[in-house]
Amino acid sequence: MDQMAIAFPFGDPVAIHIYGQFGIRWYGLAYTAGLLLGWYYMRRLCQEQRLWGGRGPMQPIQVDDFLFWATVGTVLGGRIGFFLFYEPFALLKNPLMFFQIWEGGMAFHGGLLGVGLAVLLFARRQGVPVRVLMDLSAAVVPFGLFFGRLANFINVEMYGRLTDVPWAVEFPSAVLARAHHALGPRHPTQIYEALLEGVALFFLLRFFTHNRRSFLSPGLTTGVFLMAYGAFRIFAEYFKEPDKTDWFEAHYLSVGMIYSLPMIVYGAYLAATAVRRVSVETEKAGAAAPAKA
After folding, report:
1. CA gyration radius for the chain?
2. Which residues pair with 73 in a beta bridge?
3. Residue 237 to residue 254: CA distance in whole angstroms
4. Which residue among 125, 157, 192, 219 is least enclosed by CB atoms within 10 Å?
5. Is the dihedral of CA 106, 83, 178, 245 positive or negative?
6. What is the C-alpha to C-alpha distance for residues 34 and 28, in angstroms, rounded to an integer?
7. What is the mean pLDDT of residues 50-73?
8. CA 113, chain centre distance (Å)
9. CA-closest candidate to residue 188, choices 146, 239, 142, 229
10. pLDDT tens readout for residues 222-242
11. Could you tell me the pTM of the whole model?
């Protein structure tokens, strides 16, 4: 029986052409959607007093200001991380490559560090507890991950190994040939990651924030996010086609896996050291309770 595979009409990285190759790119749409939805969801989380046992930790105007800090941290961190973690010698050959963002090249681990620095600086500037802002940021990251992976799929990046599963995808032969990869149906690993890191991770974090009220234990939400993301990323990496440009390559062990291991360790540390604080509701209940003779 001949192998069947799903064929998608993959387009160019430009979603809306304005003039020639200039226009609005899928990456730009993905980052915009992720940041705006994350901003909106963070505002809603801060307004739900039930999650905090009282007044939320940030005012809406503070969330609005943090959107700018998070955007800068995401873009600069992701760009620097890409060259630092995956293409360490590329800038030596052509330093101007750093500014050619239309060519792609963003690393999630670098973006995470960039947002982490933005969280630290903004929290100190605004007088917000660092772990609290970390938790809020972690709760909204899945939006960006979901749309980012969809952009990877459209741009034919980070595709999977050859496979015969029924949902295999035929990626453009020109892209595979340019990367010196064999033609044939492959795992749509970008979709795997969109579903795991975007959809599944969002609902996992929402279970902790809304059912377990993890915001009352600063650091717990971030710890769950880091451990879950690291595990999901390592799982998806098993199905990816190895990138021949990576500084490290081994059978079923990739750079993405190596970079995810410290995230899991740090996430476990945050979860283990998260101390549940007394909520305002608990304090009021204790004050209202009659004293025992």
Report:
1. 21
2. none
3. 7
4. 125
5. negative
6. 10
7. 94
8. 11
9. 239
10. 999 999 999 999 999 999 988
11. 0.85
